[in-house]
Design goal:
Blueprint lengths: L2 E5 L3 E2 L5 E8 L6 E7 L6 E6 L5 E3 L7 E6 L4 E6 L8 E8 L5 E4 L2 E4 L8 E2 L3 E5 L2
Parallel strand pairs: 2-13
Antiparallel strand pairs: 1-3, 3-8, 4-5, 4-9, 5-6, 7-8, 9-12, 9-13, 10-11
Length: 132
C-alpha cells in the first residue's frame, strides 16, 4: 500500500514562493506520481505529474512557475512554487498510480495524465493560501 504525506503548505503573498514536500512509502519508481490541487468551488486538477523516464507533465497554468522534483534517497517528492498567484490557492495533494492507468501519450510525449481517477493512492493534502 502506497502512503503519501504532504507538508509545506502555508499562507503566502502573491509573487511569493513555497516548496511543498510529499514523503512516500511503499511505492515503486515506475509508478506515475503527481501533484494535484483542489480549490473551493472547482474540481480537483492536475498540477504536475511525472513518469519513470523523468518527463514531467505540467498544467498550462503553472508552466514556468512550478517545478516538480524528487529525492529518491529520501523517498520524497517536491513541488517548488514560484510567482504564486491568488488562483493558486488550494489544497494540494500528491498521488500515486500503482496500476499504470495514468501512463500514456499526452501532447505527443509519453508521460502521466492529470486524470484524477487514474490515481489510486492519495495523501491528505496541504493547504496553500494567498494572503494578499
Amino acid at each position: 500500500q502506497v502512503q503519501l504525506v504532504e507538508s509545506g503548505g502555508d499562507s503566502v503573498q502573491s509573487g511569493g514562493s513555497l516548496r511543498l514536500s510529499c514523503e512516500v512509502s511503499g511505492y515503486n519508481r515506475n509508478y506515475c506520481m503527481g501533484w494535484f490541487r483542489h480549490a473551493p468551488g472547482k474540481q480537483r486538477e492536475g498540477v504536475a505529474t511525472v513518469v519513470t523516464t523523468g518527463i514531467v507533465n505540467y498544467a498550462d497554468s503553472v508552466t514556468g512557475r512550478f517545478t516538480f522534483s524528487r529525492d529518491n534517497a529520501k523517498n520524497t517528492l517536491y513541488l517548488q512554487m514560484n510567482s504564486l498567484k491568488p488562483e493558486d490557492t488550494a489544497m494540494y495533494y500528491c498521488a500515486a498510480d500503482p496500476r499504470g492507468a495514468a501512463r500514456g501519450f499526452y501532447r505527443g510525449v509519453y508521460s502521466c495524465s492529470h486524470t484524477t481517477t487514474a490515481y489510486q493512492n492519495w495523501g491528505r493534502g496541504t493547504q496553500v493560501t494567498d494572503s494578499s
